[in-house]
Amino acid sequence: MSTFKQHSVLPGFNLALGFTLLYLSLVVLIPLSAAFIYSAKLTWPEFWNAVTAPRVVASYRLTFGASFAAAAVNAFFGLLVAWVLVRYPFPGKRLVDALIDLPFALPTSVAGITLTAIYAGNGWLGQYLEPLGIKVAFTPLGVFVALTFIGLPFVVRTVQPVLEDIEKELEEAAAMLGATRWQTFRYIIFPAVLPALTTGFALAFARAIGEYGSVIFIAGNIPMVSEITPLLIITKLEQYDYAGATAIAVVMLVISFILLLIINLLQWWVRHRSTKA
Known about the structure:
The protein is mostly helical. It has a single domain (53-276), classed as MetI-like fold. Helices cover 77% and strands 0% of the residues.
């Protein structure tokens, strides 16, 4: 009995899949595995003490807390910026649209130095904020500002194409049926952009967790106050504490993977719900 083998429309699938797996192994899997293998040199008590030291826990709290807050703020304002760029013509629109990508092209160290110069006590904005009791530079607030700056383009560039593809006929039909602008946005536009908005949030959050260059200048790097986890890893490497650095890196990897998995499950749930609706 002969069997029928269905071939893919696109040729070279097996070869392309092999190159893909090889590339991912060399670039992603092997380096990540090396971190786990190196941290295995520590005994369990040594590993636990390395990753739960008060200074390390404080860096976790600041890194993940500031990253989540910055991604949430970017999700709101990124949607607003994308809405303005898509729906309203105004002078200088092309310039504003190009400026959105500036954090992508700007070296992170330059961004950190610039933000520090602006928000320091003698900076352009800092000299007016500090008399009001708002100290940005060298505080956790400065970390939040830097992470917000580098994360905004991820949300805007993810949501913008979806807004452009929404058919205006749906909004016109809703208006003809008596829906207000808020009802049209809530029941038609927002469900359509929610999967893309969740994706933009995830990308901004993931980028913020691993951000280093733009943060170290404005953070001040004060232990237990404004020290982020990536900087703590670099500090341990400079002290030749490779096992301790990889132990902290493993914890960061595991927590980041769990959070991104939860976000991906949320994305799937949103898409599934919107498809059923």
